[in-house]
């Protein structure tokens, strides 16, 4: 893979793809986060953890040495969260 192609792939991963991954993870969080006494804790934590999800995905896409592996991991996280949402609705 040429350095220019790797740079373009990292830009796409660190930009729009991480935003999509963080949004899908935030949408799936109420499904696996336990409900609190008020019944809305799982919704509030999903919104509050959105910057952490986004930061995790951005830093992983920039720090991983292999661009293709980072792309596969982020796409797998998106696919798992989308399938979790699909199976519950």
Describe the 3D structure.
- With 89 residues, the chain is mainly α.
- It is built from four helices and no strands.
- The protein has helices at 3-32, 41-48, 50-63, 67-88.
- Helix 1 runs antiparallel to helix 2, helix 1 (3-32) runs antiparallel to helix 3 and helix 3 (50-63) packs antiparallel against helix 4.
- The relative contact order is 0.19.
- The mean pLDDT is 91.
Quick structural overview:
With 89 residues, the chain is an all-alpha fold. It has helices at residues 3-32, 41-48, 50-63, 67-88.
Q: Average pLDDT value?
A: 91
Strand coverage percent: under 5%
Q: Could you say which structural class the secondary elements and strand pairing correspond to?
A: mainly alpha
Characterize the biggest β-sheet. Answer: none
Specify the helix fraction band. Answer: over 70%
Question: What is the rounded Rg?
Answer: 15 Å
Number of strands: 0
Q: What general form does the structure show?
A: elongated
């Amino acid at each position: 893979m040429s350095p220019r192609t790797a740079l373009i792939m990292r830009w796409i991963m660190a930009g729009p793809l991480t935003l999509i991954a963080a949004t899908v993870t935030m949408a799936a969080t109420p499904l696996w986060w336990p409900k609190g006494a008020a019944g809305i804790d799982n919704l509030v934590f999903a919104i509050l953890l959105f910057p952490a999800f986004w930061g995790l995905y951005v830093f992983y896409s920039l720090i991983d040495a292999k661009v293709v592996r980072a792309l596969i991991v982020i796409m797998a996280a998106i696919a798992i969260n989308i399938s979790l949402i699909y199976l519950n609705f």
